[in-house]
Amino acid sequence: MRLDKEKYWLLYLPQFTDWLRYVDDLSAKNPTKGTSAFSTLTSHYGDAALYKMIEEAAKFAGTKDLATKLQKELMQHWIATAKSPDDVFHAMNLDKAKQNILSNPEFTAWAKYVDDFNAKYPENPALMAPVLSKYYSDGTLIEMVAVAISGGVSKRVATKIQD
């Protein structure tokens, strides 16, 4: 299929959906083997590049549905492999966001990831504030949370950061 030669255009190729179907069928036939499209893709491209590829594919009508499905499955893969919320924050390039991150839709997706991670691993819950404090000063965080709460933009998430 020569999919290993592609990088950013991988999701646009018809062979890619054929390959996904093949891997899904293989996983269904051999559930104990743990074959996963995402374990192959992340080992080949890395988390950040794979997430970026999916994010770019979501911008186009022809690949939006596939990209949306893959984003959800990638998050599930990260949960299943216990990928830390800090690593996911970095993979989603949120560590490079310049504006108020709380109004970024990707941040909302990350916050949901943290919730899902904590539901799966309640014995070792992850907090948002320590991750955010790696990239933002306390003053900036306090200001972002105050703006979000007063504006109602991300009130639920902002309140969770305060905890």
TrEMBL record:
<comment type="similarity">
    <text>Belongs to the RxLR effector family.</text>
</comment>
<dbReference type="GO" id="GO:0043657">
    <property type="term" value="C:host cell"/>
</dbReference>
<dbReference type="InterPro" id="IPR054463">
    <property type="entry name" value="PexRD54_WY"/>
</dbReference>
<keyword id="KW-0843">Virulence</keyword>
<dbReference type="GO" id="GO:0005576">
    <property type="term" value="C:extracellular region"/>
</dbReference>
<keyword id="KW-0732">Signal</keyword>
<dbReference type="Pfam" id="PF22748">
    <property type="entry name" value="PexRD54_WY"/>
</dbReference>
<feature type="domain" description="RxLR effector PexRD54 WY">
    <location>
        <begin position="75"/>
        <end position="114"/>
    </location>
</feature>
<keyword id="KW-0964">Secreted</keyword>
<protein>
    <recommendedName>
        <fullName>RxLR effector PexRD54 WY domain-containing protein</fullName>
    </recommendedName>
</protein>
